[in-house]
Write a structure and sequence with these properties.
- The chain is an alpha/beta fold.
- The protein has one domain: Aldolase class I (TIM Barrel), CATH 3.20.20.70.
- The protein is about 30% helix and about 15% strand.
- It is built from 11 helices and 12 strands.
- Strand 11 and strand 12 form a beta hairpin.
- Helix 4 runs parallel beside helix 6 and helix 7 packs parallel to helix 8.
- It starts with 9 loop residues before the first strand and ends with a helix.
- This is Radical SAM protein.
């Protein structure tokens, strides 16, 4: 009997992962190897959500055949073929594989298929860490328990938007989508409860229309709930309602990276963040004795260990938003200056 091309038997691979596994030809600029194999579910009837920034959205012209997400191509592959390629390459330093991420669409089958994909990966003898990227609209606590049993070791809730206001404008009823802000907040707590503090987190996109204060508020909230923070920089996708929206300026993103790092390392109180009346972060009261070497990781790719996502936030000819390797002191100081935070810049210039 002919089987339908659909998850769990078929998955999309990020183009970087597709190259690492040898499905697509190509080389990585600056040798920035993609260390995580990013998988995304595929269904002939597509994603049921209609997020205004996403190439997988229900009302995007190409529908389920749209092959882009966070700007990069996602070729469709058999899961069995993907597993075989990963087995051949795991442990080989030429490929540097560290993690697999099983990403969901908003679909009634998403949770059960994530469990099945994870189970098949583990049963094949693959030892890489596995992250689950979930949508709480269709994934609940009992699903998370089964994902962990199947072999997942980390989970992220793809909340994306920094506040209820932005969520409704980009992911909720205002854009004819069914996602619910309160359900996503509940999903964060469920993820932490099942996987444990530090093993659960959120995905947050900077540039969807939030104020900097809103972004810092959700980061602070997530951290107090025991969730880690994974930052992305918005980049417009062709064919979506937000295709003409400009990305957040580099200085905004650098400020959010600094805030995330300081929050996650418990180095400041919320009162250390100084905002103007428009919600712009205008300065940070830093703790004493921080060095440039200590703060340099703030500008690296954040999230699950072993996930570097090169060029997922920008084109290869653009400056990295998330630096996929440990930055030099000069690179770190440049990023600090890009933040345009007066006392922060002065603080680290004095340490030169």
């Amino acid at each position: 009997m002919l089987r339908m091309v659909s998850s769990p038997d078929w998955v999309r691979l990020s183009f970087g992962a597709d190259m690492v596994l040898g499905f697509s030809p190509g080389i990585f600029l600056h040798n920035a190897l993609n260390t995580t194999i990013n998988l995304l579910q595929y269904y002939p009837d597509g994603c049921k959500a209609n997020c205004s920034y996403c190439g997988q959205a229900r009302e995007v012209a190409q529908g389920p055949e749209c092959k882009t997400l966070i700007r990069v191509e996602w070729p469709l592959r058999r899961l069995d073929d993907v597993i075989k390629k990963i087995k051949e390459r795991q442990g080989d330093p030429r490929y540097g594989l560290q993690r697999i991420c099983v990403g969901q669409l908003a679909h009634p089958r998403a949770a059960q298929d994530s469990i099945e994909i994870t189970r098949r990966i583990r049963e094949a003898g693959i030892e890489l860490s596995i992250s689950e990227l979930i949508t709480p609209t269709y994934t609940f606590k009992h699903h998370l328990i089964e994902m962990k049993k199947a072999g997942g070791d980390m989970v992220d809730v793809a909340i994306d938007a920094a506040s209820k206001r932005v969520f409704e404008e980009t992911r909720g009823k205002k854009v004819r989508s069914m996602h619910n802000w309160e359900r996503y907040l509940q999903g964060i707590d469920e993820a932490v409860e099942v996987f444990g503090k530090g093993n659960a987190g959120i995905h947050l996109i900077i540039g969807l229309g939030e104020t900097e204060k809103e972004a810092i508020d959700i980061m602070w909230y997530a951290h107090t709930r025991g969730a880690k923070i994974t930052l992305f920089a918005f980049y417009p996708e062709q064919g979506t309602p937000m295709e003409k929206v400009k990305p957040a300026p580099v200085n905004v993103y650098r400020r959010m990276q600094l805030a995330r790092w300081l929050i996650e390392n418990d180095l400041i109180d919320y009162s250390a963040f100084k905002f103007n009346d428009d919600g712009v972060l205008i300065d940070i009261d830093l703790p004493p004795d921080l060095t440039i070497d200590e703060i340099a990781p703030a500008f690296m790719t954040s999230g699950c260990p072993g996930c570097n996502r090169p060029y997922s936030n920008e084109r290869p000819n653009m400056e990295f938003r998330n630096i996929p390797w440990y930055p030099s002191r000069d690179k770190a100081l440049k990023a600090i200056k890009q933040s345009k935070l007066p006392s922060v810049i002065k603080y680290f210039e004095q340490k030169q």
